[in-house]
Amino acid sequence: MRYNRLAKYLLLAGLMFFVVSVFLKIGYYFEPKIDRHTPIDEELYKVVSPSTYKYILNQPSACEHNPYLVLMVPVAPGDAASREAVRNTWGQRDLVPNLKIIKLFFVGVLEGEEGEKSETAIAEENLNHGDIVMMDFLDSYRNLTVKTMMMMNWIAINCQSASYAMKIDADIFLNIYYLINFLPFPATNNYITGSVINDGMPRRAENSKWYLSKDIYPDSTFPPYVSGAAYVFSTDLAAKISLVSRFVRPIPLEDVYVGLCLKILGVRPVYGRGMFWLRNLFEVRHLNYNRCTFAKLIIITDFSPTELLKIWPDFQKNHTC
Ligand SMILES: *[C@@H]1O[C@H](CO)[C@@H](O)[C@H](O)[C@H]1NC(C)=O
Questions:
Q1: In this structure, are strands 164-168 and 69-74 parallel, antiparallel, or unpaired?
Q2: Cα angle vertex 235, ends 234, 236, to 5°?
Q3: Which stretches are transmembrane (predicted)?
Q4: Which of the listed residues 54, 134, 140, 150 should we mutate to test ligand 1's pocket, taking the one with most ligand atoms within 8 A of CB?
Q5: Average per-residue pLDDT in the chain?
Q6: CATH (residue range 28-317)
Q7: From ligand 1's centre to the CA of 43, what distance in Å?
């Protein structure tokens, strides 16, 4: 009798687990109701508007062979070491058989003499690799929102034919093999996944790195958003996010900004979880390298270029557990 009841509970638990995992994987979408929103002030919109900035370097034909996935890596102009590490690790060509994946670096400019020097160096680096997009906005931490919106616009203009785009920082370990298996195939529209933050709120302490004044952001909570370290989205979203940025006041937190755009679009970010145990696959913290642990995750953060280069050969040889 008691075993019978236990079996029923187990069955019920299994059923609930199934329903929850299906729900988390699919998310739910609403039709955008853009007409309810009022455009922001023209001067404010200029900050994130693509027409404000000019290309210094561009790769307009990067997507001519219809890649499946575009990796977009924001990086500081002077950080050649990180770019080289990405090129020689997860950003290599032909890592996944029969699937075209490309990567591009996105940089802004620096001021003064340092800026001129870095522009010359980057132009030369780009001659060798052809993988850098440079625009004439000041490359600073608080301008990451500008950079992100330039990446969205770049995809919207040049790469609608790709299925997915991923925004990923250069100091991240990316298990590209797991990512490819994880993404819904064929691609669905209005899809964005990563490490979802549902309970974010603005920091009001002026000395905080993430400080937001009440003037800039009066609400006391953030809508659900994906952590900016790395997130993946279907390319249709790039143009949609770019479009609704007319209605969202720029804030210096790029991932929250994308979340605010998604809210207007009625798109709910999907938590990147594994099939079993619903484990978070986008690990936004550092872990020491272990092939078996890394094989079961999509990203792990906080790696120096040297560390990435050191662990990658072992992982590439045998990325299973
Ligand atoms: C962002 O970039 C613009 C354009 O280069 C520049 O005028 C502005 O000062 C930058 N803002 C910050 C906070 O760095």
A1: parallel
A2: 95
A3: 9-30
A4: 140
A5: 93
A6: 3.90.550.10
A7: 13
